[in-house]
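Let us walk through a complete example step by step. Step one is to write down the protein sequence. Step two is to encode the small molecule, adenosine-5'-diphosphate, as a SMILES string so that its atoms and bonds are unambiguous. Step three, shown after the inputs, is the structure prediction itself.
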Amino acid sequence: MAAPSPVLHVEGLVKVYPGGTRALDGLSFTVSEGEVYGLLGPNGAGKSTTFRIIATLLKPTSGRVVVDGVDVAASPLEARKRITYVPEEVGGYRRLTGMEYLRFVVSTYLRARGEPGRIGEALEEAVELTGLPREVLEERKMSDYSKGMKRRVQVAWALAVRPRLAILDEPTSGLDVEASYELRETIAEYARRHRVTVLLSSHNMLEVETLCTRVGFIRSGRLVAEGAPAEILEETGARNLEEAYMRLIAGSGRG
Ligand SMILES: Nc1ncnc2c1ncn2[C@@H]1O[C@H](COP(=O)(O)OP(=O)(O)O)[C@@H](O)[C@H]1O
Ligand SMILES: [Mg+2]
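Step three: the predicted structure of the complex.
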């Protein structure tokens, strides 16, 4: 079998915000086709900054991002056709019903990508992926939805259009145990079945152990360790990823 081709290549990213915060300090990692890659780290580690740069919404101070062979800084419009991005805080569109919202985002995205013929099929799939009853999607406005329901709608369309790379920033943060379990199952199952490549982030290291095929630990804008969850557990002798992270941080912090 041929080696999986890289869908995302992040190389030496540095981001210094106006004001001087060095959010990223030489971050590099690669995500291959079909992977669910988790960028894990505490608040302020640089996860959202990384995702905004990949999604072309923010320019890095230096470094390079290539998505599916496209340099995002040189060709942002081409890059956007290959990406879907669900930010941490999902606002807006409160006056639309879930269905109106899905129709809008799915058709806009697929038209931009030159695939208007796939709109109907992707919309049906998105509806199914939300796991919400059709009446709720048809009749109730997004402003009435719980945080978990809004997140489901967002993640559903981001996957259903089958991007080359779906970027989900803390998809389960703020959700209760059940909602976050269901959303993780949806992501894992869909990615496996359709080989959609997913990049997600979390500050909860315990929840991603079964979801991610590979994880990268990020701290102060740098990758401190990377591997399949099982590999990391074996190498560190930890019982879970949270413990592994603490050991690695303790090990790298001295000296
Ligand atoms: N727009 C901004 N302006 C200035 N500093 C920012 C901005 N956004 C994030 N930061 C800072 O950059 C660092 C990384 O933030 P962020 O990428 O949001 O981390 P994470 O998503 O891992 O919590 C933090 O110190 C944060 O305060
Ligand atoms: Mg964040």
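Step four is interpretation. The CA atoms of residues 11 and 64 lie 5 Å apart.
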